[in-house]
Structures are given as C-alpha cells and as structure tokens.
Amino acid sequence: MNKVSFDFNHIPDLPAFYAEFVRQFALTESFGANLDALWDEVTGGIALPVEIDFINLTASRKRRFGALILLFEEAEEELEGELRLNLLEKPVAKAKG
C-alpha cells in the first residue's frame, strides 16, 4: 500500500493543501483545486490502495480543515479499504534501521 503524508505545519490553508496534493500525487495543472475536484481524484483518479497521514493536525486545524477531513473520511468509507486516513497530532517517529 502506497503511503502519503501531509504535514499541516506546512499547510496553512486549502489552496496550500491542494498544491501539496497535486505535488504528492503528480497531478496535472488541470486539477480544479476545489472539494469537488478533490473528491473526483480521491475516488477515481489517484492510484489505490493508499494510506494517507494528516500529521500535526491540532484541534484548531481540525476545525479549519473540517470539510477536507470529512471528504477523506467519506472516501475512506466508500472505497472500502482501498484508502486509509490517519489523523495524527504529532509526526510519526521513523523506525531506526
């Protein structure tokens, strides 16, 4: 399963999220940068299966990005295991190897 992380310490608003989403999933400039376009990509455009981590997501950021979080939670339910969303308040520690 492919894994992608979005660090909300570096994502201040929705336009910044959309730009990072385009970068992470190597989308074209034609991406509409709105919730409808995001839904279309998440449910039928990006390669699945995928695990998505939203890291550094504080309580105030959860409120600010509520519509975005809801979209991914609904996609997770609709895609039945092909997409997994993790909401993390602090960064994941990398395993020592």
From TrEMBL:
SUPFAM superfamilies: Barstar-related. InterPro entries: Barstar, Barstar-like_sf. Residues 2-82 form the Barstar (barnase inhibitor) domain. Gene3D superfamilies: Barstar-like. Belongs to the barstar family. This is Barstar (barnase inhibitor) domain-containing protein. It comes from Rahnella inusitata. The lineage of its organism: Bacteria, Pseudomonadati, Pseudomonadota, Gammaproteobacteria, Enterobacterales.
